[in-house]
Structures are given as C-alpha cells and as structure tokens.
Design a protein that fits this description.
Blueprint (H helix, E strand, L loop, with lengths): L1 E5 L5 E3 L1 H10 L3 E6 L6 E5 L1 H18 L5 E6 L5 H16 L3 E7 L8 H14 L4 E10 L2 E8 L4
Parallel strand pairs: 1-4, 5-6
Antiparallel strand pairs: 1-2, 3-4, 6-8, 7-8
Length: 156
C-alpha cells in the first residue's frame, strides 16, 4: 500500500500495482518521494523532467554561491619597511577585490627564536589593513610559520 499524490490524481492510498497502472494510464512514472512515511508516499510525475529540473536548480544554486578566494602573502620576521609597504599594497588590493588574505611569517633556520617579532609584524600588518578588512584568525604558530587570516569588510 502506498499514498499516491500528483496532478490529475485522486490523492489516496492504493495498492502498488494499482498505483503503477494509474501512472501508466497517464504515460507518466510512479516515483517514491518519502519512503520513511507510513504508508510510503509516491508521486505520479514525468521522471526525466523531474531529474532535469533538479539538475537545473542545483546549477542555479551553484552559480549564485560566492566562491571564496584566498590570496597568500608571505613575510619574514625581520622585514624591511619598504618590503612591508609593498606587500601591504598587494593585500589592500586583494581585500578590495573581495578575496581573503592569508598572511604568514615564515621562520627559516634559527629565526624561530624570534616568534614575538613575527607576531608583531603580523599585528602591525592587520592594523594597517584595518579599514579594508578584519582579522578572522589571530596569528597562530603552525610549525615554522605563523599564520593570520584577514577577511574583507563588507561594503554597504
């Protein structure tokens, strides 16, 4: 026994064979919509058209969803002011384009002992970019690099 729904159909509970005959009579398909319900719910529809419309909806949703772009900028713990400003201009441009910026300070060799210098550089970088973006993730040491993520501010 199944509950049959659909257009041009008297909604009700029918035997499976009877429901299949009803679908064949309209030259449509009997599709199980809700198998967990008691009794299971079946709908009389054109299955190919149903699949096509589902595919079309998924494509539409995918097109509307925003793609998150992450741009990466690498700094050193002992970065010079000119280099810092150069990287800052790039980060500003990336944030204005709507991309997230992943800023990392890479520690080579023994420079890992200057973790505090790396954190100061990252915090200064975040402070300079304050009007364009906000810090999503504060500086965190992962292996030989300290990483911070900045997201663009939503313009209204």
């Amino acid at each position: 026994m199944v509950r049959v729904v659909g257009e041009n159909v008297t909604v009700g509970i029918y035997g499976i064979k009877e429901a299949i005959e009803m679908a064949k009579g309209q030259e449509l398909d009997l599709v199980e919509i809700s198998p967990s319900a008691t009794p299971p719910v079946c709908k009389i529809i054109d299955y190919k058209k149903f699949l096509y419309e589902q595919k079309k909806k998924k494509k539409e949703i995918k097109a509307k969803s925003a793609k998150v772009v992450i741009k990466e900028i690498r700094l050193g713990p002992n970065i010079d002011d000119h280099d810092f400003n150069f990287k800052l201009k790039h980060a500003t441009k990336f944030l204005q384009e709507g991309a997230k910026v992943k800023v990392d300070v890479f520690f080579r060799g023994r420079s890992i002992i200057y973790k505090d210098k790396g954190e100061i550089v990252l915090l200064r970088f975040a402070q300079e970019l304050e009007e364009y973006g906000k810090v999503e993730r504060m500086p965190k040491l992962e292996g030989k690099r300290m990483i911070m993520i900045i997201t663009p501010k939503v313009s209204k």
